[in-house]
Design goal:
Order of helices and strands: EEEHE
Low-confidence stretches: none
Strand content: over 45%
Largest sheet: 4 strands, antiparallel
Distance between the termini: 18 Å
Mean pLDDT: 83
Strand order of the largest sheet: 1-2-3-4
Length: 86
């Protein structure tokens, strides 16, 4: 069993039919485990936290859906899958 962590910076693209498309800064934090029961076949599980920074200037209508601006849009992902090493 091997734990891992990684992170990074990126961009989130917002688009909708009635709104102008926009791009904002996003961050990525990931931690998880790899387990290889056999030499080339194993499993992987991870948790990913992806906050996207919003403000009045850069997020426009996407950051202000109800008349007040949210400062962060947060997404959490849980995943488990098979891994094949070759």
């Amino acid at each position: 069993m091997r734990p891992f962590v990684f992170g990074g910076l990126g961009a989130t693209f917002f688009s909708a039919d009635d709104l102008q498309s926009e791009t904002t800064l996003s961050i990525n934090y990931v931690g998880g485990l790899n387990y290889f029961a056999w030499r080339n076949v194993g499993t992987r599980a991870h948790v990913r936290f992806k906050p996207t920074f919003l403000d009045d200037k850069s997020a426009g209508d996407y950051g202000d859906p109800f008349g007040f601006c949210q400062s962060w849009l947060s997404q959490i992902e849980f995943a488990v899958g098979a891994v094949v090493r070759f």
